[in-house]
Amino acid sequence: MMGMERKNISISIVSGKGGVGKTNISLNLAYMLYNLAYKVIILDCDLGLANIDILLGITPKKNLKDIIQSDVDPEELIVNIERQDLDLIPAASGIPELLEYERDVYFLLVQKLNNVLKKYDFIILDLGAGISEGVTSFAASTSLKIILITPEPTSLTDSYAVIKILKTKYNQSNFLVVVNMVEGESQARQTFERLNVACKRFLGVELGYLGYIRENKDFAEAVSKQIPLAKLKPQSEGCKDLMAIAKNLVKVVDQLPSLKKGLDLID
Ligand SMILES: Nc1ncnc2c1ncn2[C@@H]1O[C@H](COP(=O)(O)OP(=O)(O)OP(=O)(O)O)[C@@H](O)[C@H]1O
Ligand SMILES: [Mg+2]
Question: Rounded distance, CA 218 to CA 68, Å?
C-alpha cells in the first residue's frame, strides 16, 4: 500500500554467547511477523560469519560491504525472500577490515540504510556473538533488544555481560528475553527469572519476558535442507513457539508508542 505509515521498529537479536540460535530465530521470527501481515526486513549484521543467506540457500551478489566501500544504493542490496514483504540485506562474510568497529563507517552505514528501512514495519538485526563494539553499538541502535538465552549457565553470564554494557555504556532499556532450547514453559520461566533477578539487583534493569522455544530437531533439519523452518514445517512446535513470540512482540510494541524508530546509533 503506497504511502502507508509503517511501524519502523528495529529489533536486535543478541546473546553474548555464540551458537544459541540467533540466526535461526532472526530468520524464523521475521517469517512469523510476515505471516502476521507486516512488512519485514532482516539485516544480517554478523560481519564475521554471515549466515542468513546459508539458511536460505541463496548466494547474494551484493552485501553490506558494497554500501560501505562504494556508492551502491542500499535498495540494490535488497533480496526479496517472500514477494515484496519479507526482505533481506545480506552481510559481508569474513571481511576482516569490517570486523573492527569504526565509528564513522558505522554512522555512514546507518545513515544510508535508514532511508530504505522506513518502508518496513519490522527490521530484524541478526548480530554476531560476543561483546565487541561492533555488536553492542548495533544492538544499542535498535528500538528493542531481544536477549536470546538458553538454560546453560554460560549463556546467562554472557547475556548479563551484554545487558550490562548496553545499560551502562549506552544507557539502553527495553530488553526482552526469549529462552531457547528448553523442555517447556516452566524451565523457560526459571531461566528467565535467574537472569532477571541478577539484572534487577546489580544493574537496576527489569527485563521483559517474551516467550520460549522448545529444543527441537526440526531446526537442524531446516538448516541442513537450507529451507527456513517457517516454510519447511509451518505447523511444527518450533513455529508455534515462534508465532507466540511474534504476537507478544507486537503487543509490546503497541504498548510502547514512544519507542525510537529505525536505527539510531549512539556515540
Ligand atoms: N530450539 C532449538 N532446538 C534445537 N536446536 C536449535 C534450536 N535453536 C537453534 N538450534 C540449533 O542451534 C545451532 C546454532 O544456531 P544458530 O546458528 O542460529 O546460532 P547463533 O546464535 O546464530 O550462532 P552464532 O553465534 O555462531 O551466530 C543450529 O544448528 C540450530 O539448528
Ligand atoms: Mg548467527
Answer: 36
Backbone φ/ψ region at 31: left (φ over 0), alpha (ψ -120 to 50), beta: alpha
d(CA 3, ligand 2 centre) in Å: 34
Contacts of 7 (CB under 8 A, 6+ apart): 38, 121, 122, 253, 261
> Would residue 28 count as lying in a domain?
yes
Q: How many domains does the chain have?
A: 1
pLDDT confidence of residue 65: 80
Say how many C-beta atoms besides its own lie within 10 A of residue 12's C-beta.
Answer: 27
Which residue ranges in the chain fall short of pLDDT 70?
1-3, 50, 93-100
Cα distances (Å, whole numbers) of residue 73 to 47, 70, 76, 224 = 19, 9, 6, 33
| CATH number for the domain that contains residue 32 | 3.40.50.300
pLDDT of residue 3: 55
Question: Domain for residue 77, yes or no?
Answer: yes
Which H or E run includes 199?
A: helix 185-203
Among all ligands shown, which has an atom nearest to the Cα of 14? Answer: 1
Atom of ligand 1 nearest to the CA of 148: 21
